[in-house]
Amino acid sequence: MANKFSAYLYQITNVKTVILFLLLFFITIGVIFPLISNMLGLPEDLESADTAFNYNVDELYEIIETYDPPARKASAVFHFSADLIFPIVYLFSFGTLISFTLSQGLPKSTWLQRANLTPLFLFVFDLLENTGLAILFTRYPTKLLGLARVTSFISVIKWCLSGLSVILVLVGLLGMLLNIFKPIHPKDQTDNQS
Asked: What would the pLDDT profile of 75-110 be if each residue is shown by its tens digit?
């Protein structure tokens, strides 16, 4: 299934789809998230655990304690609504961007071509993190320490995969840049003339 999804990303990737998904990515962050947060009544000044790279159980519960009961309920709803949309958006945003830059910057035979699956794993871990946080917010003041530890660990993996996605785009862009300045060998010129 993963191989089929990797091939599917390459199949749908072109300049238009990359631009479309990147626009959707920025609209989601800049418009949809704030709109849904306002509709749910989530105060803007509250810290969000899913934007932190690393937190321990005590730090997580310190964050949860800053939310009053309506804000905790709104946060749980947010994690099961808007925060489920975003992973789908960046799955295709990063997936097509990585596919485009790697296919243009690296030889087709390189093992890195399959790295376009990184956003798929990021998607899975983000959904797991959202589920864990929603349960922890909903069940508070009951403390589910095991779930909090697992959710914290999942958050670290999610952010590592996010960073890896950015690195892969940069690797592809570097390859594209090197291809532009690649000297043409006499053999290549002969091949082009025939």
From this structure: 888 887 777 788 899 899 999 999 999 999 888 877
Does a structural domain hold residue 193? no
Domain membership of residue 162 as a residue range: 2-180
Cis ω for the linkage preceding 43 (within 30 of 0): no
pLDDT, tens only, 27-65: 988 888 888 778 777 777 777 777 778 889 999 999 899
Within a domain: 194: no
Question: How far, in Å, CA of 14 to CA of 97, rounded?
Answer: 9
**Which own/partner contact pairs does 27-31 have at CB distance under 8 Å and 24+ positions apart?**
28/85, 28/86, 28/89, 29/86
Q: How many domains does the chain have?
A: 1
